[in-house]
Specification:
Layout: H1 3-15, H2 18-25, H3 29-43, E1 48-51, E2 54-57, H4 59-86, E3 93-97, H5 99-104, H6 106-116, E4 122-126, H7 129-137, E5 143-147, E6 156-171, E7 180-181, H8 183-187, E8 191-194, H9 199-211, E9 218-222, H10 225-234, E10 239-242, H11 243-251, E11 255-260, E12 265-274, H12 282-310
Parallel strand pairs: 3-4, 3-5, 7-11, 8-9
Antiparallel strand pairs: 1-2, 5-12, 6-10, 6-11, 6-12
Length: about 300
């Protein structure tokens, strides 16, 4: 396959315009069109179709665009790592993570890792699940930690780390504080929503679908878990939040918890990597091995404590 033509195709697909792509690439519009036609002839597939006055990708074009974009992202990643090697730098460890692991798990894991490898540069990017997986697939991170249950990303390899509990919280002293109610009762309260792409939002919507309960009214919407929790602490709204994030607040009675009858919500945390990666990164392997061992050790300790308590 002609990589030059593939690169031009990727630029046209990303900009959804032959004219804009030609301007960005500093070549003529006819030259861009010719390269696209040659590529279509070479692979025997139509990549674009007209869409009003513009163009859009065909299904075959969408598939090729996703693969080509990944290819050129990999190329850019290799170039950056080669530059680091030339300059004698240690290869950095790039991690992306959703809010819960990045705030409540990774600080402890990274503290131990940095004591063992103090000179290895580490970058930690935090975002919602959609943003984090996009970082991973576009080679802007080496691994990702995500709280997510439903998956349709064929290019991602998953390793289950643990399950975490999610609780409904309300302002301290709320009429449902400390009580057990029906799901429909708590959903009738003004709700604090996370942004689209948030795993917590996905959990809430899934819960409504499964139990055939109307989606609650949006009281406020925040682009961050901490901001949402602060609103509940201030006295407004109901929300679904991880036990990791609110357990200490509950102990200090800064928020209240609502128990929903016959419903326990637990969601998995996954360690994610790209499925087709072949290169080996020593420090990345050391870090992921430590994380897995730490999770297993903690789970074993917890199980032993529970067994002791039962007797």
């Amino acid at each position: 396959m002609n990589l030059h033509a593939l690169r031009i195709f990727t630029k046209v697909a990303s900009m959804k315009s032959v004219t804009k792509a030609a301007e960005a690439l500093l070549i003529s519009q006819p030259a861009v069109t010719a390269q696209i036609r040659n590529l279509e002839k070479e692979i025997g597939l139509k990549l674009f179709e007209t869409d009003g006055r513009g163009i859009k990708l065909t299904k075959q074009g969408e598939y090729l665009f996703a693969r080509a974009e990944s290819l050129f992202d990999m190329e850019h990643d290799i170039e950056n790592k080669l530059t680091q090697l030339k300059m004698g730098k240690l290869e950095e460890l790039r991690i992306s993570s959703t809010y819960l692991p990045s705030n409540f798990l990774l600080p402890v894991w990274l503290e131990t890792f940095k004591k063992k490898f103090p000179f290895v540069p580490v970058q930690l990017y935090s975002g919602n699940s959609h943003q984090v997986l996009d970082q991973l697939l576009h080679y802007n991170s080496d691994i990702a930690f995500v709280v997510k249950e439903e998956w349709n990303e064929p290019d991602i390899k998953l390793h289950h780390l643990m399950d975490i509990d999610f609780w409904f919280i309300v302002p301290a002293g709320h009429k449902y504080d400390g009580k057990e109610v029906l799901l429909g009762d708590v959903m009738a309260e003004p709700f604090l929503f996370r942004e689209e792409g948030s795993s917590t939002r996905e959990i809430l919507f899934s819960l409504c679908r499964v139990h055939r309960v109307p989606i609650p009214n949006v009281g406020l919407q925040f682009h961050g878990l901490n901001e949402s929790i602060r609103s509940v602490m201030a006295g407004y709204g109901t929300m679904l939040a991880s036990a990791l994030a609110v357990n200490d607040l509950l102990k200090r009675k800064e928020v209240g918890r609502v128990k929903v009858k016959s419903i326990d919500i637990r969601r998995p945390i996954y360690l994610c990597s790209r499925k087709h990666d072949t290169e080996s990164n020593f420090h990345l392997n050391q870090f992921t091995a430590y994380v897995r061992e730490n999770v297993i050790r903690k789970a074993t300790t917890t199980a032993n404590q529970d067994s002791t308590y039962q007797y």
